[in-house]
Design a protein that fits this description.
The chain is mainly alpha-helical. The protein has 7 helices and no strands. It is elongated.
């Protein structure tokens, strides 16, 4: 999908391809770093934001694929504009969250595994 969108005529598809590739690389880097220490507890402490990042990356891929299909078929201009707008929304407003979701994990933050239940009464 990234390769196909990179070759697409429209600048949105090309930009979205680059954004999706960057998000996928960030998820891949986080995956390697989280498991590199050999501490499952430390890796799993970041499970929720990691899953959010991965989910956002997958949804971006789906939206970009939908955009490419809609652009190629162009049978219904209204539907094509709707898919285009939804795809643009996701890439502008949602995909950038991947970096924030993964920032603590990539920084090696250990806050969650250092907390103790007894500290909170």
């Amino acid at each position: 999908t990234v390769g196909q969108a990179s070759r697409a005529a429209g600048p949105d598809a090309q930009r979205f391809a680059a954004d999706l590739a960057a998000a996928a690389q960030l998820v891949e880097r986080a995956t390697r770093e989280l498991w590199s220490g050999g501490e499952p507890e430390a890796a799993l402490a970041h499970a929720t934001p990691y899953m959010q990042a991965l989910g956002h990356t997958v949804l971006a891929w789906i939206w970009l694929q939908l955009k490419l299909v809609a652009d190629a078929r162009a049978e219904d201009a209204s539907l094509q504009r709707g898919i285009d707008a939804a795809c643009r929304f996701f890439f502008v407003y949602e995909l950038p969250r991947v970096r924030a979701f993964l920032a603590p994990a990539l920084a090696g933050d250990r806050t969650l595994i250092q907390m103790r239940e007894e500290w909170f009464g």
